[in-house]
Design a protein that fits this description.
Largest sheet of chain B: 4 strands, mixed
Mean pLDDT of chain B: 92
Oligomer: heterodimer
Distance between the termini of chain A: 88 Å
Radius of gyration of chain A: 30 Å
Radius of gyration of chain B: 28 Å
Largest sheet of chain A: 4 strands, parallel
Strand content of chain A: 5-15%
Strand order of the largest sheet of chain A: 7-6-8-9
Order of helices and strands of chain A: HHHHHHHHEHEHEEHEHEEHEHEHH
Shape of chain B: elongated
Helix content of chain B: 10-25%
Order of helices and strands of chain B: HEEEHEEEEEEEE
Number of strands of chain B: 11
Structural class of chain B: alpha+beta
Mean pLDDT of chain A: 92
Strand content of chain B: 35-45%
Structural class of chain A: alpha/beta
Strand order of the largest sheet of chain B: 7-2-10-11
Shape of chain A: elongated
Number of strands of chain A: 9
Largest interface: A-B, 48 and 41 residues
Helix content of chain A: 40-55%
């Protein structure tokens, strides 16, 4: 499984590199697959609502009403029908890519099992929504879908009488069945929406809207497709005739041809086993579980910055339990904590300047404590020599840093770049442990722990606490969000940064400016 | 990459995306059944006879029953399995023992078979045993049909309306 994962990851990274250039990392659709799924869902919902206004659920009327939309009101209902179909197909594409990508990037284990597990029923619900949609058009494709679906369902020992009998002859077909199908086609997507909501419940600052440009581009592309290549029906259903050849929607009906080569029971077994494998994947070996974050109440002032920054909603505030004067304290939910250390990076007490007491912040991760980061920082910078000395802070999910180390380059690897309190950058530069600091990690817009790069960027820009102090010269700080596979690019950036630092020379504290005493207006002048 | 080439690249990416969506949403055509063939479906749902004959309660037994439970006959729930044979042009294409549905085996037995046939004239015959007898058939049906390509027939069974029928 690991080799499959590595291969898939390599493929994704190659493709995403190209899309980074084409779309910029902020708009790269591969980093927005979940949000795009939400976006396509809403397009399907809105277009479906419009189409439903003109839909008639009678046996004869169903097809006629869809034809009316397609040919008479082609400019509105027809476009909406096409948009409804194509956005549904796009939803399948981004959903499957999202699943494969989370697998390839190993983002489904440990406390992240919840999103993975709740994603599996979403697969089923999306397919059920789409397939029931094809049914209600009642054209030849609908006839095929109705027969094959009911024959497949009949393979389950659940129904006293074969459901397929409803679709073998016009005399057995009832308009009420269409009403039921329309109900299913509305109810299942509503259940889907609920499960999608559950799916993101353990994600802080969930991304359910893609960037506006990407959303507009996707909508415009689907609209153009709807106008240029409208969705058509395939002739009215006729139960006295076999729908021998059908133009399948391969996004939704991929498995249906298999029913012509294997039994319904065998196909149920196949999809059942596949579903079971998907459901159990987060718990299959190898297991890796870093110890969760720990709170030190003696050092926690209840500021709640860690709660605001936690990407997995593992932290909550509660009334103080230790009799301290502070009103609240933070509590860690071990089941949700991924030990990324972003909480420690947000803690105002995680500062390397502390000397009078041990460096124990209000919250910390045992595998790599802030004190250990300080020790590694000092060790890495102590060995630096020459001009243009750089300390590289990277993350465990980014490029390996060992190859970068040299006489003038030291490295410290963190769990996530968001684990780095900005005061460390201040500490390294203004205390002259190095001439500059380079931050690296996952690809821009694709932090393994979701929000590490975003929070780091905001902390450095001074828009999020804890902020990087103004006194730190920004020309001595570089960020390279290049991901695991762009080591050459990182080496080039580092080399160029070293050269810039050599030109800048060693850091010197700016001399305090001579105070200017403003002239006081004389009482006479006032008069 | 500067703005214009980036815009062009994005256009190409969107175009490729919707081209894939547009093509695979209705292509390639799938041939479900050979369009040169016709199709006969043997499909029915019918409950066989009870596996044991009903027995009339004795007056003493009836007296022992609660008033609301008193009924003249004592019948076992279980039904016999149906036995069906289906022939096309004197060749048996389907032969099956159809067990009754339900945990207590007291439901109807069902059959659903799709049989592709070449166009032209065919003699079809269906036979069904739904009683406790060990051999022979309780219902028999025979008919000559002209099958056209893509045509779909249904051979159904309804005991109340005379047994097998062609739809």
């Amino acid at each position: 499984m690991n080799s499959a994962k590595r291969f898939a990851r390599a493929v994704f990274e190659r493709v995403e590199s190209v899309f980074d250039v084409m779309f910029t990392p902020a708009w790269n659709p591969f980093y927005q697959l979940g949000a795009l799924g939400w976006f396509f869902y809403w397009i399907v919902a809105v277009s479906g609502f419009y189409v439903y206004i003109f839909y008639d659920s009678g046996v004869e009327q169903a097809y006629a009403s869809v034809e009316y939309m397609t040919h008479v009101q082609w400019y509105a209902a027809g476009v909406m029908r096409s948009l409804h179909r194509y956005a549904s197909d796009a939803l399948v594409v981004v959903m499957v890519l999202h699943l494969l990508r989370e697998f390839a990037m190993d983002r489904f284990r440990g406390p992240r099992w919840f999103a993975w597990l709740t994603g599996v029923p979403i697969l089923w619900l999306v397919y059920a929504s789409g397939i029931s949609g094809y049914w209600v058009v009642w054209d030849k494709l609908a006839q095929y879908v109705a027969l094959v679906t009911s024959e497949w369902l009949d393979a389950l020992p659940l129904f006293g009488e074969p459901i397929a009998r409803n679709f073998i002859h016009a005399s057995t077909l009832s308009g009420r069945f269409f009403t039921l199908m329309v109900f299913i086609h509305i109810a299942v997507p509503l259940i889907l929406l609920f499960v999608m909501w559950v799916h993101i419940q353990r994600h802080g600052h969930s991304k359910v809207n893609p960037p506006r440009g990407l959303a507009l581009g996707s909508l415009a592309a689907l609209l153009v497709l709807s106008l240029a290549y409208p969705a058509y029906s395939q002739g009215p259903a006729n139960l006295s005739e076999v729908p021998a050849e059908v133009d399948l929607d391969w996004f939704y009906l991929t498995l249906y041809p298999l029913l012509d080569v294997m039994s319904g029971a065998a196909l149920w077994m196949l999809v059942g086993v596949a579903t079971l494998v998907l459901l159990t994947l987060p718990w299959l070996p190898p297991k890796r579980r870093a110890p969760h974050a720990l709170v030190s109440l003696d050092n926690c002032n209840g500021c709640a910055r860690c709660v605001a920054d936690c990407p997995f909603m593992a932290l909550t505030m509660r009334p103080r339990s230790d009799g301290s004067a502070f009103a609240q304290e933070v509590v860690v939910d071990p089941a949700k904590c991924v030990a990324c250390g972003i909480c420690a990076g947000a803690c105002p007490t995680a500062t390397p300047y502390r000397r009078r007491s041990a460096l124990v912040p209000g919250i910390d991760v045992p595998d790599l404590t802030v004190a250990e980061i300080r020790r590694q920082t000092l060790a890495a910078t102590a060995a630096l020599s020459g001009a243009g000395r750089v300390l590289v802070f990277g993350c465990s999910c980014g490029p390996p840093l060992a190859n970068l180390a040299g006489p003038a380059v030291g490295t410290v690897t963190l769990e996530c770049i968001g684990q780095l309190p900005p005061s460390f950058i201040d500490f390294v530069i203004t205390r002259r442990h190095a001439d500059g600091v380079l931050l690296t990690g996952c690809r821009d817009g694709d932090c393994h722990f979701r929000l590490g790069i975003r929070w780091t960027r905001e902390r450095l820009a001074g828009t999020r606490d804890p902020r990087l102090r103004q006194r730190v010269p920004r020309e001595r700080l570089v960020s390279c969000w290049l991901g695991l596979d762009r080591q050459r690019a990182l080496a080039r950036e580092l080399e160029a940064f070293c050269e810039r630092l050599i030109r800048l020379g060693p850091f010197t504290r700016p001399q305090p400016a001579t105070p200017v005493v403003a002239e006081q207006p004389s009482p006479e002048s006032d008069a | 990459m500067s703005a214009l080439p980036r815009f062009a690249a994005q256009l190409a990416a969107y175009g490729a995306f919707v081209a894939v969506i547009g093509y695979f949403s209705a292509s390639p055509t799938y041939t479900h059944v050979d369009p040169e063939l016709g199709l006969i479906r043997l499909s029915f749902s019918h409950a066989g006879a009870r596996s044991e004959e009903c027995r009339r309660y004795t007056p003493e037994e009836l007296a022992q029953l609660a008033p609301n439970m008193r009924r003249p006959m004592d019948c076992a729930r279980e039904r016999v399995a149906l036995y069906v044979e289906f022939e096309i042009d004197d060749a048996v294409v389907y032969r099956a023992q159809l067990p009754p549905a339900g945990l207590a085996r007291d439901g109807a037995s069902t059959a659903y078979q799709r049989i592709a046939v070449t166009p032209g004239r065919h003699r079809i015959a269906a036979r069904l045993r739904d009683s406790r007898r060990e051999s022979g058939f309780d219902w028999e049906f025979e008919e000559v049909v002209d099958v056209a390509p893509r045509q779909s027939f249904v051979v159904d069974f309804e005991a109340q309306t005379g047994g097998f029928k062609l739809l």
